[in-house]
Amino acid sequence: MEKPKLAEATKKYMLSFYHDNPFLQYLHINVTSIEYGRVRLDMDVQHEHTNVYGIVHGGVTMTMADTAMGAACLACNKQVVTLDCTLSFIRAIPEGLHAYAVGKVIHNGEHTMICEAEVYDERDMLCVKTQATFFVLKELC
Amino acid sequence: MEKPKLAEATKKYMLSFYHDNPFLQYLHINVTSIEYGRVRLDMDVQHEHTNVYGIVHGGVTMTMADTAMGAACLACNKQVVTLDCTLSFIRAIPEGLHAYAVGKVIHNGEHTMICEAEVYDERDMLCVKTQATFFVLKELC
Amino acid sequence: MEKPKLAEATKKYMLSFYHDNPFLQYLHINVTSIEYGRVRLDMDVQHEHTNVYGIVHGGVTMTMADTAMGAACLACNKQVVTLDCTLSFIRAIPEGLHAYAVGKVIHNGEHTMICEAEVYDERDMLCVKTQATFFVLKELC
Amino acid sequence: MEKPKLAEATKKYMLSFYHDNPFLQYLHINVTSIEYGRVRLDMDVQHEHTNVYGIVHGGVTMTMADTAMGAACLACNKQVVTLDCTLSFIRAIPEGLHAYAVGKVIHNGEHTMICEAEVYDERDMLCVKTQATFFVLKELC
After folding, report:
1. In a domain, B80, yes or no
2. Cβ of D22 and C85 within 8 Å?
3. How many residue pairs bridge chain B and chain D with CB atoms within 8 Å of each other?
4. Which residue, A123, B35, B87, D136, is the most exposed by fewest CB within 10 angstroms?
5. Measured between alpha carbons, how far is residue D11 from residues A81, A99, C7, D38, D68 in Å?
6. ipTM (interface pTM)
């Protein structure tokens, strides 16, 4: 089955949508790739992202995963809110490393959508695995 | 059954532990109450915590909930890491409001601990409900 | 705030609804208490409920928890389907013991509902803790 | 990276392990494929598996998913217990259809393992998606 193509206008809208997001800007998280139902975010782990052990705080990778999944829904032309999200923490990411998250839609329903996301470090080691349910507010035209 | 009392030394250790946490400082999240197996955090929702809709970003309340639960484990004299965390998002918190999170230990096991947390807005409305499993690294003396 | 009372007709409807449920009958799980937004189920752990270790199979307590929560939604006059469910397993229940589950609505929304449930053994020890999101199909009159 | 091969003795042990499981036998769930870190289960949806709507009860697919994931851990020579499990319900499976579950290990740690599973109907439609954490009791020799 062929994957629908994402319109250039939607991509532009999404880039500005996330670029203008105060919390993502505050954490220096950037949207780096947008395809239909699949979005990637990138971030350098800086001092302000860490806990007292010098590794990234769980809240930062939660933010990356949740945002990547919500953005993947938007990249199916659906505006959504997170209903719930489950995260498994597998590996720590120390300060100074680069991290990225990939969110994917695995069920594109009329009322709800199911997504998964992975957060990796710069050596492509799986650090966080998540699964989440989103409520569809409206379809974007 | 009487609840064990938390030593003053542990309380002091915990306050400095979380006060020195770079990510919590960056988000202006403060530990405001510590009892045995129960910790409260407080935060004012400022512009940098919000998404483009002017409400708190899910990653912020995730951070509050995860931290409150991990701290509740520490307040049982156990040093832990989060294994997994599930969050249900119930109500949005707009910029300018005050929010607080309460984390509680509901199973204090030798190898793992189970906690729950709630995040409320300043009108005491339930906004986020979470459940999480922690892996015990070591007992604090 | 006063809790709405559950109509006797709804209680009767619910009892027959769950009494006629083939899987619950097959597992000998009974609805034993119905209040507004709160339902209790009871079951004796028999040989067919166990795994090779002689303790109750996780799927049995999952069934009890999921059913208790869905029934608690029905006891708010809402017909629902489970969107997702998270379960933490705390303690094993050996063959021969009695077990019960209590499901409670913690957010009664228009489109979705959030519930939690606990499964206990006959000594009232907490064995399973769950949190789940339900999608509202329709309001019952 | 080459995947370790599963010893024939382990396969035989696992088949009898699950064949002798009272709850799986009671539900007519069979282990049909075992590879290193990956196990498939099959089941025909019969009347006793259903709820009052004539579709499979969530507890049945929960049982399939949880068992497939635990078996996938065993197929890495690790004996485990489920710590927690999150399930998203996507599509109903009506009585009379065939269903199968595939469980996979995605993190094979020393103390804990992370798995995911999918349950499909006979048309290979995704019906349930799960993620779970397991606690390692011991390595099998």
Report:
1. yes
2. no
3. 19
4. A123
5. 44, 38, 55, 12, 14
6. 0.94
